[in-house]
Write a structure and sequence with these properties.
single chain, mainly alpha, disordered C terminus
């Protein structure tokens, strides 16, 4: 993680990656902040505008990476460089998008609707040409808002536990405990949570390949003194297992999630 300076305050950033950096800045800073500020990443999981902005960010990320595969300038670049360039360009275009939204050029929901249709077409076109399982954990076609918002927050809690932020981390752990099942209701979120990424390629050695349940259990043990496997999920895991063998999630399956 980058160590941020006060002048780089990203508190109000709608960019999930920038906001995760800001959360680490809060963990490092001696200044007392409201607990809601420490829970800032959870806004991307709770629905509403912030959630939509998160979807837009990752949609743009995928589109830029796909476009880059057709630009000769990037052909000779190693995969790692292409990934870095994708995040850099996404950051720049995303900030311009937010500026246009503030100017009233178009609405967020209308933009998201158009973007999601394009991303869906893009993913359908590439479905038979790539093995997502072989991609690096931060690859634009593999990263998502749940991994950044939930796993990112949990890892920072574990990293800074015992370093003068225990009360804030307790508040974050309680928020996770109260809201986890709600956050996992969207059809892709629960599958993201259940399928372990521990064996994924991880050339940058980031925490993003860690297992959600293991990390959340570790946080629960530290904060609440609970034992192993204490994350309460009421869903039927046998049914989830059946769903994971299918190519698509049917309407009847969604009731399980």
């Amino acid at each position: 993680m980058l160590i941020m300076k006060e002048k780089c305050n990203c508190r109000m950033s709608l960019n999930p990656v920038r906001r995760l950096h800001y959360l680490e800045y809060l963990m490092q800073n001696e200044t007392n902040r409201d607990i809601d500020e420490f829970c800032c990443m959870f806004e991307f999981l709770e629905g509403g505008n912030c959630c939509t902005y998160g979807k837009v960010y990752f949609g743009i990320l995928r589109i830029i990476y796909a476009a880059m595969q057709e630009i000769e300038f990037y052909f000779a670049e190693p995969m790692q460089n292409q990934i870095i360039w994708t995040y850099i360009w996404t950051d720049k275009l995303y900030e311009e998008l937010i500026l246009q939204l503030k100017m009233g050029t178009f609405t967020l929901n209308k933009y998201q609707d158009s973007l999601s249709k394009y991303v869906e077409q893009l993913e359908q076109g590439l479905e038979g040409n790539k093995d997502v399982g072989s991609l690096d954990i931060i690859h634009p076609d593999k990263i998502n808002v749940v991994r950044i918002g939930l796993l990112g927050s949990v890892e920072l809690c574990l990293k800074y536990w015992g370093k003068n932020k225990d009360e804030e981390i307790k508040g974050m752990a309680k928020a996770i405990q109260d809201s986890l099942q709600f956050w996992l209701k969207p059809e892709g979120a629960l599958i993201e949570f259940v399928v372990s990424q521990e064996k994924s390629r991880n050339e940058w050695r980031t925490f993003l390949a860690k297992d959600y349940r293991k990390e959340l259990n570790e946080l629960q043990k530290l904060v609440f003194g609970k034992g192993e496997d204490c994350i309460g999920i009421e869903n039927d895991f046998l049914e989830i297992k059946k769903i994971l063998t299918k190519k698509e999630i049917e309407a009847t399956d969604k009731s399980v999630l």
